[in-house]
Amino acid sequence: xxxxxxxxxxxxxxxxxxxxxxxxxxxxxxxxxxxxxxxxxxxxxxxxxxxxxxxxxxxxxxxxxxxxxxxxxxxxxxxxxxxxxxxxxxxxxxxxxxxxxxxxxxxxxxxxxxxxx
Length: 117
Description:
The protein contains one helix and eleven strands; from the N terminus they run βββαββββββββ. Strand 8 and strand 9 form a beta hairpin. It is mainly beta. Helices cover 10% and strands 33% of the residues. It has two domains: 1-42, N-terminal domain of TfIIb; 62-116, SH3 type barrels (Roll). The model has no long low-confidence stretch (mean pLDDT 85). This is Alkylphosphonate utilization protein. It comes from Aerococcus urinaehominis.
């Protein structure tokens, strides 16, 4: 068995080592050993989302809003509102990294800096 990595471009297992690079004969892709290690580290490290107090948040947690959040001219999420079953967003939109449903309001996205566990 070879301990050569599969090609990140075409997933072929026919790769070989050529000096400082790995080469795939199937698609011609070349990559450095450092890129292989970096891509493995990136997969292992998921972004950590923390609340206003620094506690790590996870999917399904229950949080409390720590300040009034104005949604529109007529809708406001009041301080102390309990939000259950949050979902963390992999790619935050304008800093909003929590997706949730709030009774009486519906689906909203929140910033983790305005909630506590």
